[in-house]
Amino acid sequence: MATTDGDANLMREKAREFAGRWNSTRTFIAAAAIVFVVLGSVGALGLWSSLIAFVVLAGVAVLQSILTGEARGTMMRTATTQPLSAAALLGSGAGLTILNELPDPLIILDGTGRVALANRAATPILGPSPVGKHVATAIRSAPLITAIEEVMRGGAARSVEYSVPVPVERHYDAYISPIDTEAAAAVPGVDPARRRRDRPVLVLLRDVTDMRRVEAMRVDFIANASHELKTPLASLSGFIDTLRGHAKDDPQAQERFLEIMSDQAGRMRRLIEDLMSLSRIELREHVRPDSVVDLLGVVNDVTDGLMPLAAQNAVEIVVTAAPDLPKVRGDRDELGQVVQNLADNALRYGRSGKRVEINLAPDAKAGKPVVRLTVRDFGPGIAREHLPRLTERFYRVDAAASRAKGGTGLGLAIVKHIVNRHQGTLAVDSEVGRGTVFSVLIPAAGEAKPAA
């Protein structure tokens, strides 16, 4: 019966192995015979003792040669009929313990694409008891499965990014690499092409969801900032062209247009100032301020400056404070900005309620003393679906109304970053038709630690 090239190669390899083993065994037996003849001739051993010892030693040598050949033959047959086991080649109790400490999911697949090894971080992706599962049934991502299959077919290591849309959209960067182990390379009689196909494959996953979100926020921020600057610039350009044209001899039109241009220029200035302020605050957000500040004094200074705007809108500002109010540790200018932005928002958007209340009181958070700053208006309120996004940059409940009232969309984002720098908390509660309440907790000076 004709044999295949693979079977012929295996037979020739076995013949060479047998010849090599027999030559070594025959040489050993001949050397042993000479030694025992010499020992018998000099009287060191009796004739029968030498003969028995020689026969036993020769038998052991032949038996060892046979057993070695059978073991190697079994290894060769297994290597040519089954894929290499990643668990056998790579896994051990100590090794898996080390892999379990990795923060990123790591998966090792055998030559058939089934999970041979997976660390603890891979459990949320593969599910419980993943060993033995085919990777395509555990991870439903066509780009990832395609890349794994290409590496299994003998391709080089590669990286691919894929997304999981449900239950919550997440993005992963996957690195797929073949594992060339010494155990696989040492097996005789295995065709090199087959060895490349059957080698284990390592899949290392890295969750890049937060990185993608930050990148999206950066793109949105640039787009929003550009849009906010473009609108007043276009308005200014239009009025300049009008003043140069048919309105150049109309004093009344000039006065009206110049007033509008002044408002637009002021809007641009406020936006640029808020952008610069936000940039400075973010740059120092990790540095804790270490000055002792009288928060009531800050509130009084801010409200004094807001009185003309309050009078213009017929809004009463009421400030109350507890007599035993402790001082806080912070940056006076930044805390003034917090009060300014919150009170200004209450005046602009809650003026229909005709009253703004600012209250300061001692409080506690996690057993430590804090000062609670509360700014309340009695205006139209905010629908609850908008509350989680109020501190996002350029987020507005009503963009047109905000721009009409001079808002930049950055005020509450600035407040959030300042409060974070002071290791405080910001909360907002609102009900449509009943007004809005902003609450800020700032650690009291006695418990705050000085900046490093």
UniProtKB/TrEMBL annotation:
Residues of the Histidine kinase domain: 224-446
Keywords assigned by UniProt, alphabetized: ATP-binding, Cell membrane, Kinase, Membrane, Nucleotide-binding, Phosphoprotein, Transferase, Transmembrane, Transmembrane helix, Two-component regulatory system
Any Pfam family hit: HisKA
GO cellular component: plasma membrane
TM segment ranges: 27-45, 51-69
Catalytic reactions on record: ATP + protein L-histidine = ADP + protein N-phospho-L-histidine
An MF annotation (GO) of this entry: phosphoprotein phosphatase activity
Record's protein name: histidine kinase
Originating species: Parvibaculum sedimenti
